[in-house]
Amino acid sequence: MTEDSTDGARRPPSTVTRESVLTAALMIVDRDGVDALSMRRLAEVVGRDPMVIYRHLPNKAAVLDGVAEMVFEQLMVDADDPDWAAQLRVVARSFRALALAHPNVVPLLVTRPLSTPLGMRPIAMVRPLENILRLLTGAGFSGADALHIYRALFGFLYGHVLNELQEVIERPEESDEVLRLGLHRLPITEFPLVRELAPALAAYDGAAELERGLDILLTGLTATLTYPAG
């Protein structure tokens, strides 16, 4: 065997890091869902003994937290934007884009933070909160009102992305909206309004719904909160 051999078996193995393990875990979840993720499956993808995985992440719960953290790390907030409402729209659109790019991770984004006290969560999962508080207090809102805005925004975003990802068309080739959505399965006497709104339900546009929801949310916030003058 010559020194310049390309025999991969003779190459030194690449270093396994927490980041490389989480990257593999995210790939599994993206492709096959959360239920497909196990420490054994993760070790197979990484190409190592499971004990190597445990050195970086002690259990599956830690892996799930890490996967959610990796996605949250991509959510950027410009805390110095002079237009707080416009920046919140940017954040909302970015969050939706991340959710659509990683639909199988969305349940983790919504539920994993709730399983850990705020101060014990990964830094990447707390940073959007800190930056949005900076954005809003910098605009003149009180800390309490800034926190209220944050909670209202993310409560809306979590609900929106979960709702959008559940919009499943039963028969996409059908031109009749009732048949497309499978609404013919519902008794018309019990669900007359749902059946009547079939055209609107079939015309669901996630991006447009997000903007409409933000219009309502931000208008309501500016009308009910004490906003600083000038």
Automatic annotation (TrEMBL):
<dbReference type="InterPro" id="IPR001647">
    <property type="entry name" value="HTH_TetR"/>
</dbReference>
<dbReference type="InterPro" id="IPR009057">
    <property type="entry name" value="Homeodomain-like_sf"/>
</dbReference>
<feature type="domain" description="HTH tetR-type">
    <location>
        <begin position="15"/>
        <end position="75"/>
    </location>
</feature>
<keyword id="KW-0804">Transcription</keyword>
<protein>
    <submittedName>
        <fullName>TetR/AcrR family transcriptional regulator C-terminal domain-containing protein</fullName>
    </submittedName>
</protein>
<dbReference type="InterPro" id="IPR036271">
    <property type="entry name" value="Tet_transcr_reg_TetR-rel_C_sf"/>
</dbReference>
<keyword id="KW-0805">Transcription regulation</keyword>
<keyword id="KW-0238">DNA-binding</keyword>
<dbReference type="InterPro" id="IPR050109">
    <property type="entry name" value="HTH-type_TetR-like_transc_reg"/>
</dbReference>
<dbReference type="Pfam" id="PF02909">
    <property type="entry name" value="TetR_C_1"/>
</dbReference>
<feature type="DNA-binding region" description="H-T-H motif">
    <location>
        <begin position="38"/>
        <end position="57"/>
    </location>
</feature>
<dbReference type="InterPro" id="IPR004111">
    <property type="entry name" value="Repressor_TetR_C"/>
</dbReference>
